[in-house]
Amino acid sequence: MDLFKSAASLLSKSIPAFPYTIQDKVFFDDSIWTLHNGFRKEDSSKCSIFQFEILRDRGRLPLARNAVRKLKTTRHPGVVKFLDSVETDQFIYLATERVEPLSWSTKRGVLDQEIIKWGLYDICKTIKFLNEEATSIHGNVRLSSIFISKSSEWKLFGFEVLTNVKDENVTYSGLLPQAKRYAAPEVGSNGWSGIQTSHVSSTDAFALGVLIYTLFNGSFDAQSELAFKNSIPGPIYPHYKNLLNPNPKSRLSTKEFIDYGLRHGSFFKGEVITFSEEISSLGIMNPVERERVLNKLEEISGKFPEGFTKSKILPELLKVLEFGGGGAKIFSMIINLSSQLTSDDFQSLVSPTIVRMFSSADREIRICLLENLDKIIDNLEKKTVNDKIFPNVLMGFSDPFPVVRELTIKSVLTIIPKLTDRNINNDLLRGLAKVQNDVQPGIRTNTTICLGMIARYLGENTRRKVLSAAFTRSLKDPFPPARNASLLALSATMDMFPMEDCAVRILPGVIPSLIDKDKSIRAQAGKTVDIYMSRVKLMANNIPEVIAAPEGEKTQIDGWAGWAVSGMKKMAAERLAAAASIPPSIADRPSSTPLKLSNPPLSVQSNNFPNVVSSEPITAGATPLPLNDYTIWDEDSPVWDDFQDSTEVGDKLKPKDDGDNAWENDWGLDDD
């Protein structure tokens, strides 16, 4: 046990003059290297660290040194990215971008045929670059030399015997693990020195053929098994056989293999490969080409590995969006693709661009942001929302376009859980006060609904000042849905008002709606009155009926108060008897006997307007309608069409202007 602890401690220690820390070992075989995860000390960024043990394998030390030297000087998108290296008395450490062995995925069987062809295409392009442009022989093309990057792209490694054909100092492949198993036929005839006399591409072309067999069929024990097709796709198989031609002069080169694959309808012309080539040039495409690529992305986005979507597709889309291309369509695709990301990935990849876009002057982008805010709000930090996003959202309340003001109101329901109390009770309420006085009736209606839905987020004092003022004022709106929304909001927020406000401010404001010209308003007003009356009565029952008087005043009060009460009682009885056509004898009934009137209560009587066919009786204890039972009002409804048909709609719907600060004064909002 102590031995294992010492080993773990050794691995976690920093290496002198090497700015990286080694972590856990990654399973990796068929190589002179052992692979570890690691991270950079300066910023904790992830990396991979290849380790070569000098004392245990000194005979292969030239191979390790050659790999480091060649990888350091070879820059290509298809090559594992070199970061740093250091050699000590015992080890050589080579730090690269974070990768994982391709063999992991092939053993698990998680790669479908299209992804294999896509990865194979990238490896072929890299081999072609080494053979043609760098005039070099890789000499070690096999499954253990290929790794998958964080973008899910296949990268070539294994530069232990990479040699330029013009070099005099050649490191031969015979020192590699299992060298004879992967060796080309000419090596058996002429030895490893024959590689340099062959065509520069012949050795790697044969190794490419072996790699193709391994990718589609798995491992093999002898080269005689390579003659069988098994699971190799039909379009690839004829060219695969030419890659394995025993005669190096007649063998198909990697360049020719790519050319055959890119012919119309051939094996490298699949939609995945085509799109991966086009996405990198999305920013310089004309609008027609960009639209075609984006439409293709919508069809095949699910076919790419998660890493490619995160590291290649999303960054390209974000880059195009930020520099003014693609507009709302690209933004919608970004939102859909980012739903697959973790919260940390969203913060690092998407959030910075989203924040910058909220300050964009492009109204189309702002509309798209507001429409999709509910899809991204959970991944945005509270501080970012309050400091950078909310100030830009507030500008929407003053936008000259009604659709922006409408969406801004709706976005409040999404953004408010992330807002601070100060932003809610000050800036947000000022913005809502402005749009509740909007010339558009639908916007005024939705503002009232929004206030009812966010009432629980308001401070107690602010709630008391704002809600009663806003709702009672909306009861005077010329637009019926706005008045109805106010009644519904009052019913839903009843518990938020103290008894005094219910009796003194709310009920007096609602009572006139009992005789509204609109039947639906009268019906809802009756329900609202009954709800508030029930609450007021319930609370009034708890008020002490007798107030204790100071000693010495009790006898005097009983004298004049008894006379006053008796007189008023007699007068009230006479008035009630006359109004209800009740014989005077009934007026002298005991006070404990209830008075029976022929007319119904006010809440029911108010529904008996002319041209009313029927009306539903209103129960005194009616349950308030929750705000969740109605939605933001839609301007496309038939009611809105009726208002649009009126030639005087502008004059009828425009509310009275009470001055710039009228709502702020009504709501009790101070400038500070």
UniProtKB/TrEMBL annotation:
Domain of life: Eukaryota
GO molecular function: ATP binding; protein kinase activity
A Pfam family reported for this protein in Swiss-Prot or TrEMBL: Pkinase
Keywords per UniProt: Kinase, Transferase
GO CC terms in record: cytoplasm
Domain Protein kinase span(s) in chain numbering: 1-267
Region feature (Disordered): 636-672
SMART domains attached to this UniProt entry: S_TKc (SM00220)
Biased composition (Acidic residues): 636-645, 660-672
InterPro entries for this protein: ARM-like, ARM-type_fold, CIK-Related_Protein, Kinase-like_dom_sf, Prot_kinase_dom
UniProt feature, compositional bias: Basic and acidic residues: 649-659
Biological processes, Gene Ontology terms: tRNA export from nucleus
Protein name, UniProt field: Putative inactive serine/threonine-protein kinase scy1
Taxonomic classification: Eukaryota, Fungi, Dikarya, Ascomycota, Taphrinomycotina
